[in-house]
Amino acid sequence: MDAMAELGAGSLLLGDPAFNYQEHELNERLKRLYPAVNEDETPLPRSWSPKDKYSYIGLSQNNLRVHYKGHGKNHKDAASVRATHPIPAACGIYYFEVKIVSKGLDFLSSLLPLSPILGWDKHSYGYHGDDGHSFCSSGTGQPYGPTFTTGDVIGCCVNLINNTCFYTKNGISLGVAFTDLPPNLYPTVGLQTPGEIVDANFGQQPFVFDIEDYMSEWRAKIHGMIARFPIGERLGEWQAVLQNMVSTYLVHHGYCATATAFARATETLIQEDQTSIKNRQRIQKLVLAGRVGEAIEATQHLYPGLLEHNPNLLFMLKCRQFVEMVNGTDSEVRCFSVRSPKSQDSYPGSPSLSPRHGATNPNLHSAGADSPTCSNGVTPPNKNKSHNKYPGISSASSSSSSSPSSVNYSESNSTDSTKSQPHSGTSNQEETRCVASDSEMEIEAEHYTNGVAENPSARIMNGTYKHQEILQAQDISLEDSCASRQLCGGNQAATERMIQFGRELQGLNEQLCREYGKNVTHKKMLQDAFSLLAYSDPWNCPVGQQLDPMQRENICSALNSAILESQNLPKQPPLMLALGQATECVQLMARVRSGSCSFARVDNFLH
Amino acid sequence: MACLLEAPLRISVLSEVTATSRHYVDRLFDPDPQKVLQGVIDMKNAVIGNNKQKANLIVLGAVPRLLYLLQQGSSSSELRAECAVVLGSLAMGTENNIKSLVDCHIIPALLQGLLCPDLIFIEACLRCLRTVFISPVTPVQLLYTDPTVIPHLMSLLCRSQRTQEYITQIFSHCCKTPEHQTVLFNHGAIQNIAPLLISPSYKVRMQALKCFSVLAYENTQVSMTLVNVLVDEELLSQVFVRMMQRDQPIDMQLTAAKCLTYMCRAGAIRTDDSCIVLKTLPCLVRMCSKERLLEERVEGAETLAYLMEPDVELQRIASVTDHLVAMLADYFKYPSSVSAITDIKRLDHDLKHAHELRQAAFKLYASLGSNDEDIRKKITETENMMDRIVSGLSESSVKVRLAAVRCLHSLSRSVQQLRTSFHDHAVWKPLMKLLQNAPDEVLVMASSTLCNLLLEFSPSKEPILESGVIELLCSLTQSDSPALRVNGIWALMNMAFQADQKVKGEIVRALGTEQLFRLLSDPDSNVLMKTLGLLRNLLSTRPHIDQVMSSHGKQIMQAVTLILEGEHSIEVKEQTLCILANIADGNTAKELIMTNDDILQKIKYYMAHSNVKLQLAATFCISNLIWNEEDGEANAMTGSQERQDKLRELGFVDILHKLTQASDPNLCDRAKTAMQQYLA
Prior knowledge:
The complex is a heterodimer. By secondary structure, chain A is of the alpha+beta class. Chain A is 33% helix and 13% strand. Among the domains of chain A are: 20-225, Sandwich (Jelly Rolls); 239-337 and 486-599, no CATH class. In chain A, helix 3 (235-252) packs antiparallel against helix 4, helix 5 runs antiparallel to helix 6 and helix 5 (274-288) runs antiparallel to helix 14. By secondary structure, chain B is mainly alpha-helical. Chain B contains 44 helices and 2 strands.
């Protein structure tokens, strides 16, 4: 995000607190004005470019002040400078201002690719201060606005939705100057007379013109357009589609009771039969509870051949199982444990994670650190909330697409079987955790996909989690307080079993290598898992994030998708597909320079 | 129950359809209250959206019975509420329905009903009252007849969102005069309604906002109070600014802009305040854009014209905002040529608003161009502008004619435009036509414009003179309206400036000395000033002076004496002394002063007056009297000698001598020049 492109002179002043403050304010303002712009792809103009300027132009004050140092005798002596970057289309509406600090004999200001006299070259546009004319790709001007002089603030607004431009003078809009503008315009300023000085404001300071008000009008316009999109006679059809989307989503994640109730109410049919849904639900519960071994067994029992045909998935599951053994949650080690669980169902009544939707996360992150994943749905930043505020999901029926955005994991030390039972809220060693993602998510963030599965191993998961420093910090402190946690639950026999399982896993990896060739991802996965043993406190080590119950979600959704696929059912719910498609579509709009994308963002519509 | 007795009579002449309607009315008379209630409910369901049914029931006398049931203390609260609902439904019909309801004294009955504690009943009554009061056929005065009504309505504002919506809507429709504003203000309208501006209900916010716009209109007291009101710790003006944000509904933006405009015009907000310059003005300009509905464009333009009328800086800003001047040209393109064929509904809509649009545009142009020469130029250079004004002057709609002539008047303040576009488009022709037969308000603007067209550098002056304008102007001087008298005499004054003898003679003849002297005693000082101005212009070059004085000398001298003796302003006296100076410049006319000792004493008095202007004028007069004519004959020479001697005897030389020491340089020079005549 903070790609500080070519802030040449700016770097000299980095120690200056005032400059840092301005820098901070600039970033904040740009983020607020142009939330849809991905600055990694299309950086925003932040200063004049020391490279793209005429020699008669002098730059100072962090490349924001421009002064003229030529002879200024005739038009040939005119000189211009352009900004470091062109205006990204994803801005939707772009605005910058120029203050006339000192006027020479006459002054020219405009917006264009670099050219000798602004507005006179091909594909260049400008508004000239000496006569108030506008110039468009030619030497002859059109009467446009008033003249301007020392002390005036001239603004330029490019509307990338309808490809027009208007200028402002001292906060007053002068009306449209140009239509049918080409893409990739640079903010530019041109000077012609000795003594001319102008200061640019690309967002370093509040603008004189209320650009946010103007933007709000267009946002309302575009939202209105979306809301009033004519569906005409297809109204009934749409309803059926929408109902189907909700229904399939519920089924996909195994919200069995809710799905049945929904189907009854809407008089629709569920494709998959109840038993199948419940089976998936059970397996998912097991994975999410960290009982991966049982989940593998159940899968092998209910869907014979599935894991055999998906050796990668099986490996992933086994790796996870190893991690869970370290964690002391897998049943293979838990049976040795004194504090074996009475209730292992961490999701009382709720079969699966509920999705997290937020309004502020622009990107869909993959939570997976290994193979490409397809995960839709976004996470709210939850800035001020501590995990205590999240109520546990109490029943399946309350879990819909807008259910509370967190899940409670609980462990209890009651001695009982491995059977799933409703969690008892009175267990004496309850630990409730809500965890944000790990750093790997950040690394892998570029691998997110749009929900359109191009990769056969893609899996759909239900909600993703944004890296959250505050939450993480709380997490750590929480874990610190939880000193009782020990390797494999602190049981010697369990530890031995784990080591043995580790060897088996190593063997499986070697076997896979022989059969399918080397797999870097597998190797990394194995390494990470084994690394846990290198630390005395695996929960507080550099790879300790793996022990986070949140990490179960990827594998859970991968397994769920694989099962569905084996049953010839869609491996991802159409709702998420549509959501992913819409998100990708909006991003595509930015790339093909359709400015309205900035006001039609998917997260505006997720609540 | 007179109405009830009438009912059977009426029914006999009605069609059979009314038989079913009659059944509904009959059920209202059932002895069983439960059945009455059911009858009212059935009636409610029957009338919804059915105008014919509504009319039938009214004719059949349902209203008095419903009102009776509504007022009966013995009626259940449910029945009373249902009655109010049915009445409200009946009111939703045609204007005739409303008239019938008002004739049945529905308003006092419903207002009485508001005293009941039952909220549902109150809401039903208020809804019905709202519907009745927003109709143009209802006399708004009915709200103010009982002085307890307004305070009670104020107290009901806290009851529910519905009471808030209905009451504020009633207020905003019934506040038509400064008296109404004062009544509402005195009963705490501002404090009671201000919190509603942040109500969660859009309707309530909107009606509250409308209330403030009617309360603040041309009302300094309200406006001054409004600027200091806080709503949830925010200044009211800031609340209005937020309501003008571009993503707010247009109606809200426009009404909020009106509130700020009225507050600004009442002097409560400075015209250079950023909430006016950067928010209200641009918002109103946006309302003029093509994207807005025709009604919104009309209101936007009218409000904007009103906002910037007195302030040249706002006019300058508006003139460069969003191409406003060009944008207004679109106002003249209705009905658009395509709409006629393609869309009859659209044509009808266009036609309805075409006049309103044109007059709004003219008003805004008038306001824009009232001070700044560059803006006037910009306006006249707008496509077909002068042609549009010319045709606007002869439109059938008085509103358009008035606005067009206002626009023309505003532009006529430009010397350059008078010389060019005004002449090129012969605007004087339609203007003259307009003057023949028009309402007073149009006449005032038209004659005022004519004054400018008759300025000596105006090329239109000649053709206007030839069109027989003098008679017309003379008749204006006899008008009851002071504004028309001023304009008439003003135009004559401009016409007489440096005019030839023939024109002057015509003016004197047409006006008649009697009228001239009547005007010299006009109660309006403007009229008097312009009449003196006319006299001064008539008494310009020497031959004219002698000629006019030879025929009207006696009366003029009398009038001058009267004015100098009377209680008049310095300006009037100065103008009168200037007339005397002109008379003193004549050859024969001089004698009228020299032989009038009274006048000479007066001149002497004013030469020693404390006001320099009067001293100057008086000295000027004496200077003319003692002037040595270089080209004069011997007797003339001796004439000046005689005059000099006489004036010396009267002590004028001593005064002149003193004046040469005066601190005012002009006066000093004037005195010295006069003294030189004695030395010559």
